[in-house]
Amino acid sequence: VWGVIFVKIAIVGANGQVGKELCLLFRQNGHDIIPIVRNKLGASFLIHQNFDCRIADIGEKDQAKKALTDG
After folding, report:
1. Does residue 39 contact residue 65 with C-beta atoms inside 8 Å?
2. Which residues of 5-43 are buried (b: 16+ CB within 10 A; e: fewer)?
3. Which of left, alpha, beta for 31 (phi over 0: left; psi -120 to 50: alpha)?
4. Using one digit for the tens of pLDDT, what is the confidence trace for 12-63?
5. Residue 52: DSSP 8-state
6. Who has the most CB within 10 Å: 13, 28, 35, 50?
7. What is the CA radius of gyration of the chain?
8. Is 15 in contact with 45 (CB distance < 8 Å)?
9. Can you give the three-state secondary structure of 10-43, one letter per residue?
């Protein structure tokens, strides 16, 4: 019997068309999703869908590290 594995997934660019769909799809399948977007305006749809978005410019090392770290 195969078990089900749930993972935590960070999606960079989560406010884009593909990113939004991935967030919804992965969450629907039980995964813990961390949407990463550049600004709060870009996060509005995901926030409305009850995602806990992280705001960061992933091109900036300090912001990327903070966005990808729990705690």
Report:
1. no
2. eeeeeebbbbbeeebbebbeebbeeebebbbbbbeeebb
3. beta
4. 999 999 999 999 999 999 999 999 999 999 899 999 999 999 999 999 999 9
5. -
6. 35
7. 13
8. yes
9. EEECCCCHHHHHHHHHHHHCCCEEEEEECCHHHH
Query: Quick one: tokens of 50?
Result: 């009850």
Question: Any idea which residue has 């990113």 for tokens?
Answer: 19
The tokens 């967030």 sit on which residue? 23
For residue 3, name the pLDDT band (cuts at 50, 70, 90).
confident
* Phi-psi map region of 13: left, alpha, beta (phi>0 left; psi -120 to 50 alpha): left
Residue 1 has pLDDT above 60, yes or no: no
55 sits in which H/E element: strand 54-55
Total-model pTM = 0.85
